[in-house]
Specification:
Radius of gyration: 15 Å
Order of helices and strands: HHHH
Largest sheet: none
Number of strands: 0
């Protein structure tokens, strides 16, 4: 997969994998929820200052999920070509 691939570039395969792989659907949803929570906390200056450590933990988890998501996407792209 190219480093510049985005969710939008892979929306068709993401939708397909989400339907057939409950684990993928679960981690994709968790990633989306973390993204929303992080954005909310970062835009609330008062909460952000007191929750820096929590936000960093959330970002690390989100990155782990993103890596796993892209590995699954890559694996499915390879299998669909075979």
């Amino acid at each position: 997969m190219r480093k510049t691939d985005t969710w939008q570039d892979n929306r068709d395969i993401i939708a397909e994998i989400k339907q057939k792989d409950s684990h993928f659907a679960s981690i994709f949803d968790e990633h989306t929820q973390l993204d929303q929570q992080i954005n909310q906390l970062e835009h609330d200056v008062v909460k952000h200052a007191s929750r820096d450590e929590e936000i960093e933990k959330m970002k690390r988890r989100k990155l782990q999920l993103k890596d796993e998501i892209y590995k699954i996407i890559d694996k499915n792209k390879i299998q669909s070509r075979a």
